[in-house]
Design goal:
Elements (H helix, E strand, L loop, with lengths): L1 H24 L4 E5 L5 E6 L4 E6 L7 H34 L12
Antiparallel strand pairs: 1-2, 2-3
Keywords: Coiled coil, Cytoplasm, DNA-binding
Function: Binds to DNA and alters its conformation. May be involved in regulation of gene expression, nucleoid organization and DNA protection.
Protein name: Nucleoid-associated protein DZC72_13915
Length: 108
């Protein structure tokens, strides 16, 4: 009984380490998102850190449109980054979880 418990604890610690490594790796995963007309492009990491904003010169003359494009494009990029991060972390967590009946549905 205690051997199983120790094995599970070891596996959980290993999984925790893998989760931390995955979080660090997400800093290197870059996600590009463009506005509908391509006049604005943003790059964020999978950890939702903005790395780059590229604005066309034409868009600089219309402050209101630029603001709207920034909001829409950044929100789309952040949504995609969140999805990538959640998928990666769920895969690591599922891989490291002990086989407990009924827990499979938590990591789909």
């Amino acid at each position: 009984m205690f051997g199983d418990m120790m094995g599970m604890m070891g596996k959980l610690k290993e999984t925790q380490k893998k989760v931390e490594e995955t979080k660090k790796r997400m800093d290197t995963v870059l996600i590009d998102e463009k506005s509908s007309d391509g006049s604005l492009m943003v790059t964020v990491t999978a950890n939702r850190e903005i790395k780059k904003i590229d604005i066309s010169n034409e868009l600089l003359s219309d402050k209101e449109q630029l603001e709207d494009y920034l909001i829409l494009t950044l929100n789309k990029a952040i949504k995609r980054a969140t999805s990538v991060q959640e998928t990666e972390l769920a895969a690591v967590a599922k891989e490291g979880m002990p086989n407990i009946p009924g827990m499979d549905s938590l990591f789909k």
